[in-house]
Specification:
The chain is of the alpha+beta class and 362 residues long. It has 3 helices and 26 strands. A hairpin with an 8-residue loop joins strand 15 and strand 16. Helix 2 runs antiparallel to helix 3.
Length: 362
Amino acid sequence: MKAITSTIAFSFCALLTTSASLSAYAQEENQPPPVLVQIDEAREQAISQLTWVPGTVLSAIDANLASEVDGRITWMADVGDVVEAGEPLVKVDDTRLVITRNQNASNVARWQSQVELFTKRLARYQDLQAKQNTSRGELEEVEADLENAKQELAQAKLDLEFTEYQIAQSSIRAPFTALVVDRLQSPGEYTGVGQTLLRVVNPDSVEVQVRAPLNVLPYIENGMNVSVHNNVNQVEESIRAIVPVGNSISRMMELRIAINPGDFPIGSAVRVALPSSDTHDGVTIPRDALVLRKSGTFIYQLNENNEAEQVKVTTGVGMGDRIEVFGKVNPKRSVVVRGAERLRAGQKVRYNNTPDSLTAKN
């Protein structure tokens, strides 16, 4: 009888153990799969208050080119053409100048022959003077004629040189790599000296002109990197020049920020982030990592088991697409920036942490 009772008790315990195992297995099987998320880093960095100011992208070299000679325009570069330095932008008819150059060359030859004639005559009069066969006055008259011929020859050479210069200037060449922005005259029209023909810019020399409040002056310096962005692009570039002189009406000063060609179109509007307070050390996270609820603001960080841990935070200074946070944030752990809205504390997650983009695994 005791043997039967022991056997029944053993069977009952085995049944309970099996039931518990099956229950645990079933509970494990019913666990939701790890949630797909995107993560980024929490970062310790120097933080300062930022002031966003408007700026305009412009070419550092923006020129209106004018003619140095009169004449009819025979050819002109089209709007949108990019002309290398030294290549022609405008050609002015130089027929009149070529005729003038031929006249100048003729005058040079004529006065050259006069100088040679008076030089020989002076030599003869010097011989006669030495033999006392001519007067001193006649000798001086020949010397004066020779000197006058030399001066006329020099003037004729200058006239020829000036005409050749004008002929060279009748072809207006690009002083730098020039993008033609506007044609203020057209081929066939007559232009005069100093009359503007083209507006050109250098597309390889681009910068941002910024009007900034004077209160940021103590916190900026030449060479400091600042954020420049518009709706489609954001870059970090350095301040090239600071003009610490405020306008009496707006109390704004000018900054110039060098950027790379192609970052932004010339003439486009951008915004620039300038520091406006002293820096302090803190922890920042992407703004997208914040989860806003009625109970407060919190983030999710991942532990070594890829489990989401909820951390309550308060926010501080904004730094572009990042924001300073206060709380028990571990800067060595990743934060969830996509998918945090559907997470629960302790829930497992899966992700793909690549250098370029953090996207969820399949």
